[in-house]
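Hi D.,

Good news: the full-assembly prediction came through. Inputs first.
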Amino acid sequence: MEKDNSMRSILTIALLLLALSVSGFGQTLINGAGATFPYPIYSKWFDEFHKLHPDAQINYQSIGSGGGIRQLTDGTVDFGASDMPMNDEQLAKQKVPVLHFPTVLGGVVPTYNIPGVSAELNFTQEALAGIFLGTVKKWNDPAIAKANPGVKLPGDDIVVVHRSDGSGTTFIWTDFLCKVSPEWKTATSGANTSVKWPVGLGAKGNEGVAGLVKSTPGSLGYVELIYAIQNKMPYGRVRNSSGTFVKAELASVTAAAAAAATNMPDDFRVSITNAPGKAAYPISSFTWLLVPTKIHDATKQKDLVEFLHWMLGPGQKLTEALAYAQLPKNVAAKEVKAISKIQ
Amino acid sequence: MVHGITFVFAASVIAIAVLLVTQLWGQSALSRAKFGWSFFVGRTWDPVAGDFGALPFIYGTVMTSALALVIAVPLGLGSAIFLAEMAPPRISDALTFVIELLAAVPSVIYGLLGAFLLVPLMRTVVQPALIATLGYLPLFKGPNYGVGVLTASVVLAIMILPFVVSISREALMAVPREQREGALAVGATRWESTWQVVVPFARLGIAGSVFLALARALGETMAVTMVIGNDPKINSSLLAPGYSIAAVIANEFTEATSDLHLSALVELALVLCLLTIVINGLARLLILATTRKGTAHS
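Then the structure:
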């Protein structure tokens, strides 16, 4: 009998907890889905924002940029998130016009494993394109050697490693290659989250690429800057459009955005790979929140607008602790003006 | 009453299968309309240009599964015979318990083991040896990356081995004592009795274990994608990277942004369903053919 009672009270508590977590006592629950790359900073932001506004809860699922765009189109989420801007065809399919809000910046870096070489290598645009096209086959190819005087490069074959899963990282990488190499553009027909790779091995996720590069002598792959920093991986400098070899760092990634910021289009759909500027790291990109211009639920609309204001203001200060590069001030200012379009 | 309830259960299984196929059929309409039958023989997979062909994936799936069976069936059957016929009961039970535990290990763990242990081993020891000894055959001509079709097949073989061993052992144990005693009584050796009487008697169960193993190999996703190299090309060398149907679906589905890309991935799922049905059907025919020959005895 006693056991029965305690069982019942446990059950009641469990049910209560469940009810609490589901209904949340009149909380507004805003649902979003999309890119995985900014997930750590987004979950931090939504968490902090919830502490400031206990009645607003933002729920974000990192299902990938493509999935985010699809769910937004179907109307199953209140906002989406993507590492590549939506194209005109995708925008045309939306029931209400969708706005792009850049949130943070990321970079993609070449990482390599050459036995006997510990120096930080310099890569020209042509060398990277050639390696990924399969025309630069050996590490001592003049295309690589010329940019690295004093480094003794072996005559080993280059094993190219790329992402096998669809990814915003691949989009940024191939977008850069398309801009610097017409041959690459014709060979692969353009930038995308997955492309037809001329050469190389595919590995799943940043961790897959990193693992395969680490275990394969003579390999070269690409990973997100954040991943490389957190895992202390060696990565090379890349030559930018003004001819300087730049190492990817938060500052050089923000510098790439600064150049683009002066003539930012009104819809914020802009690629900043191979950006001008001496300090700009050339393989950088924004990541975007995708917000419909018309949100029917008034409280959701109010909360989301408030979040955007907070994210572009105090929220930006949280980015560097998680190794994301901040938005340039003038971009954030321009975005604040665009928020008023949400009704 | 019981009859009715069980009928509903049985019907629901069929309903799920029908629902699955109709969904796949409907969702792949765009890709079917655009590529038609050429989808099966197309060798390009270009998400940007919107050109999709399934052949490299079909090849990768069939090849890795077949190779995995070639490796796992002799090993598995051998272990099953030892466990059922030769080993003392206590050892047999203990070993069987361990083998059944192996069957419950999640596939991603096998994938990790493959990526961290097997891939370096293949690259530094196994594949150089293969290239040095059998390199004149196109099958073993390199390149030596460590990841590739052969490595994926070995990981699959390790994964399906417990199924072959465990179910084959059950089948062998179920063979009546009299069969063995009869064989020994007419002067057969231990080995002759096992190989010519017990194993043929249990062949249905053994074949069942092979099917189950094959089904798991065909649909395996995580472990394969971690070691196969994920390159949609058909290469005569087993050491070269390849790609499987399940792996490409898992890799590209979440980030497929164009409708055609998504539709082509769904059509690949349909192809995998068909492939499983065809292979299972063929295997069933094979059994039917061999059992009819044997029924006269039993």
